[in-house]
Amino acid sequence: MDTMKLSLGPLQYFWPRERTLAFYREAAQWPVDIIYLGETVCSKRRELGTRDWIALAAELAASGKQMVLSSLALIEAESELGVLQRLVDDGHCWIEANDLSAVQLCRERGVPFVAGPSLNIYNHHALALLMEDGLRRWVPGVEQGEVLLRELRAAVLADGRTMPELELIAFGRLPLAYSARCFTARALDVAKDQCGFRCIDYPDGLPLATREGKPFLRINGIQIQGEEITDLGPELPVLRELGIGVLRLYPQAEGMAEVVAHFDLARRSPTPPPHIGARNGYWHGEPGMRPAGGA
Questions:
Q1: Cα(first)–Cα(last) distance of the chain, in Å?
Q2: Potential cystine with 233: which of 150, 181, 217, 273 (Cβ 3.0-4.6 Å)?
Q3: Alpha helix (H) ranges present in 1-46?
């Protein structure tokens, strides 16, 4: 049985500098194969700057793990494009391209890239074009379930092509949407340009409930996430059949060492593990909100 790789996805939340550095230095000792570093949500989050992320990648590379520098999912300003250019120009790491501007820069400089979940790849033609540009690994979007992935993979193979390495979001709150408007600032009734970096007060996002008080979403700056921490661990037999090579685990504020240990054991076991998070309805072509064990 081939052992899947484990990746630690990019940190979606805004944590203080020392907490972030301590988290990743601990993660260097965990049984993950790939660590993604960088800001993917909001360019105003500058507890760690571009040089810090690059330096941290160089430091953690000594652990023998692959380091990938992640780009913003929504690039709106020339300054943000400049940050992206510095990440690409560093040249020591692959780039997770979450915006097509990152794809263009990687193509121009010959830097291999991972197609992040916000690139919106829905057919084998788009995938083939991006592979010509330097795509080496693909992270499908959160709503792309088993049926779509199976059909796309069959179409690629029917064309006589090979699939890139596939990485699937296996654990964490799903990034559902991005906006030029900051949801956190609006929820707290402050202007986006005078937000006071209030995201730092919510290390796992700001909970949003329905009018009936039922937990619904997480507000995370310009990003909206699902409330549930979804878990594809029980689907490991199907994921292996589909050729998934990497399981992505998104960082959470508490208990990540235990999560990694759970998936490390699961990937080496012939039987699927029990749920430690919610069932991901998207994977089954059902509504995304679906509790573990739900009908």
A1: 31
A2: 273
A3: 17-27
Q: Shortest CA distance to 94 belongs to which of 20, 3, 164? A: 164
Smallest CA-to-CA distance from 36 within 69, 84, 61 is with 69
Q: How far apart are CA 275 and CA 64, in angstroms?
A: 30
185-229: pLDDT as tens digits:
999 999 888 898 999 999 999 999 999 999 999 999 999 999 999
pLDDT in tens, 109-137: 999 999 999 998 999 999 999 999 999 99
Instruction: Determine the distance from the C-alpha atom of residue 210 to the mean position of all C-alpha atoms in its chain, rounded to a whole number.
Output: 26
39: alpha, beta or left? (left if phi > 0; alpha if psi -120 to 50): beta
User: Residue 178: which region, alpha, beta or left (left: phi > 0; alpha: psi -120 to 50)?
Assistant: beta
CA distance 221 to 184: 5
Can you list the domains of the chain with their CATH numbers? 5-177+228-284 (3.20.20.220)
Residue 42: pLDDT over 70: yes
Looking at residue 289, what is its pLDDT?
Answer: 67
H or E stretch including 106? helix 100-109
What distance in Å separates the CA atoms of residue 20 and residue 77, rounded to the nearest whole number?
Answer: 25
pTM of this prediction? 0.94
pLDDT of residue 295: 39
| Residue 182: both structure tokens together | 């900051």
User: pLDDT of 264-283, one tens digit each?
Assistant: 999 999 899 999 999 999 99
